[in-house]
């Protein structure tokens, strides 16, 4: 089976991360147009620190090629595709951190047309679980713009705990921006997974469908 970039899609299937409404899979060259369209939006790009704005097709092409060549030991990147309606919902990654002690860092974003439907939490849980289960992470860090309340809520629902504040260079803002740093330890994640499994058994399907953990960008 070939995707529209001419790649063997079956080569990636072993690394797919299925969730209730999404398939997270490694990026392909056929994702370039959708990636550039979603990120060439100031409401999305300004919530991230490593994404330029304007975001051009060349930027998306470079990101896809870089992530496809990334060694597995250094982390992983995924795009999230809606199972039912199709279309690229967002993207997420985890990678070894050079600046934060003894851990990995994660980031994720959701295309604006999918905001307000709980996809941010779904993507975040998937990439956090993968970082601990397959990536060998013992500690995860994330940096959140201080004006991104939605991203903060998602981080807290994933179990991240506030650590401190600081400044970080933002490509989109072309300068330093204030952030809050959050951390999640493996032992905390494992406890939450065990507790969540017990809670899920007690929830009705209607209660699960009514959850709305919206995120704009992280």
TrEMBL record:
Domain of life, source organism: Bacteria
* Gene3D superfamilies to which the protein is assigned, alphabetical: 3.40.630.30
> Which keywords label this protein?
Transferase
Among the GO molecular function terms of this UniProt record, one is: acyltransferase activity, transferring groups other than amino-acyl groups
Q: Tell me which PROSITE patterns the record gives.
A: GNAT (PS51186)
Q: Which residues cross the membrane?
A: none
The family database entries (InterPro entries) matched by this protein are listed as:
Acyl_CoA_acyltransferase, GNAT_dom, N-acetyltransferase
For the N-acetyltransferase domain, which residue ranges apply? 22-180
Return the PANTHER family for the record.
GNAT FAMILY, PUTATIVE (AFU_ORTHOLOGUE AFUA_3G00765)-RELATED-RELATED
Q: What name does the UniProt record give this protein? A: RimJ/RimL family protein N-acetyltransferase
State the organism named in the record.
Kaistia hirudinis
């Amino acid at each position: 089976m070939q995707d529209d970039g001419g790649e063997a899609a079956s080569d990636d299937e072993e690394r797919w991360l299925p969730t209730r409404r999404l398939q997270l899979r490694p990026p392909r060259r056929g994702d370039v147009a959708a990636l550039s369209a979603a990120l060439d939006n100031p409401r999305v790009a300004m919530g991230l620190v490593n994404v330029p704005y304007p975001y051009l097709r060349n930027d998306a092409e470079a990101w896809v090629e870089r992530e496809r060549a990334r060694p597995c030991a250094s982390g992983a990147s995924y795009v999230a595709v809606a199972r039912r309606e199709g279309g690229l919902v967002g993207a997420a990654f985890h990678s070894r951190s050079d600046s934060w002690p003894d851990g990995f860092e994660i980031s994720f974003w959701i295309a604006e047309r999918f905001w307000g439907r709980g996809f941010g939490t779904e993507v975040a849980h998937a990439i956090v679980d993968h970082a601990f289960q397959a990536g060998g992470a013992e500690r995860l860090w994330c940096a959140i713009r201080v004006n991104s309340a939605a991203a903060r809520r998602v981080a807290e629902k994933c179990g991240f705990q506030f650590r401190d504040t600081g400044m970080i260079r933002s490509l989109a803002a072309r300068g330093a921006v204030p952030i809050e740093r959050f951390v999640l330890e493996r032992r905390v994640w494992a406890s939450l997974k065990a507790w969540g499994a017990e809670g899920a058994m007690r929830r009705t399907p209607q209660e699960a469908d009514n959850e709305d953990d919206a995120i704009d960008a992280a």
